[in-house]
Write a structure and sequence with these properties.
By secondary structure, the chain is an alpha/beta fold. The strands form 2 sheets. It has a 5-stranded parallel β-sheet with strand order 3-2-1-6-7, with helices on both faces. Strands 4-5 form a two-stranded antiparallel ribbon.
Length: 274
């Protein structure tokens, strides 16, 4: 049995990785696999570099390409769409999301197939040969899914241990580890305003990159990101250009917030951010 950790380099999967290295899980780990979209903020890559040095097992970095470059390319070719906000009949809706599967899930599954020695197009075994540890926490149980492959069994140690994301942060602090940044593409529409505000203030390079993608979604250039889209689409849920959004919270403006301050009501249900 091979055990791999799906490492998003966010809070939860980093907690699992460190726990496994310290022998504190009921599961051993043979490899961690990080699927690199090429579009994470600088802080994620810096964290991953730090984390690798702390682990007792290797981290395999895999990639399906640079998602940002693919979205902004004007060359012919298929692309994986990102979710974006749009107004429809007076209500805010979202466009189709393919990026998580094609830039996160599938590269990891290809890496697992390689570990099993499977060639391209070769059918995998019908019995479980790999356990894939995924850092979904108790407060995100709705994101739990089967792998869709008979030879890969997804397991969720944080749920088994009844640990929430806050428990993970508390554990990291207790052990003296620094706090990881949230792992997600710089232009991910699932960012909450607190993350947008932090990026704008502390990582202007990443924020500028996100603004460029947001503008391209409504621009005149025939970029791949615009194909098949009717009407204006936006990265931010307000359906305003990103550079025009006021990211202050209701509390910042002296109002009582009626929404989840962590933004989990609008959390990506895929492999990102964990």
């Amino acid at each position: 049995m091979i055990r791999v950790l799906s490492l998003g380099a966010g809070v939860q999967s980093s907690t699992l990785a460190l726990m496994a290295s310290l022998g504190l899980l009921n599961y051993s780990v043979d490899f961690a696999i990080f699927a690199d979209t090429g579009a994470e903020p600088r802080s994620v890559y810096e964290w991953l570099d730090w984390l690798e040095k702390k682990l007792t097992f290797p981290v395999k970095r895999v990639s399906a390409g640079n998602l940002r470059d693919d979205l902004l390319s004007t060359e012919p070719g298929r692309f994986a769409s990102i979710p974006a906000f749009t107004m429809y009949s007076g209500r805010v809706g979202m466009t189709r999301r393919q990026c998580t599967r094609e830039y996160k899930v599938e590269p990891i599954q290809r890496a697992v197939r390689a570990l099993l020695g499977l060639k391209h197009g070769e059918r995998g075994p019908r019995t479980v040969e790999v356990q894939q540890l995924i850092g979904i926490s108790l407060d995100e149980m709705g994101r739990m899914k089967d792998s869709g492959k008979p030879y890969i069994e997804n397991v969720f140690p944080l749920v088994e241990m009844r640990m929430t994301r806050q428990h993970c942060l508390d554990w990291m602090q207790y052990r003296g580890f620094p706090r990881p940044a949230k792992s997600a593409c710089t232009f991910c529409p699932y960012h909450d305003d607190a993350m947008w505000r932090d990026m704008k203030l502390n990582d202007p390079e990443s924020f500028t990159s996100a603004v460029e993608v947001d503008r391209a979604l409504r621009g005149d250039a025939p970029v791949r990101a615009r194909r098949g889209m009717d009407g204006d689409v936006f990265i931010h849920r307000s359906c305003k250009p990103l550079e025009e959004v006021d990211f202050r919270s209701a509390e910042d403006m002296g109002q009582q917030s009626l929404f989840d301050p962590l933004g989990f009501q609008n959390e990506c249900e895929g492999m990102c951010g964990i």
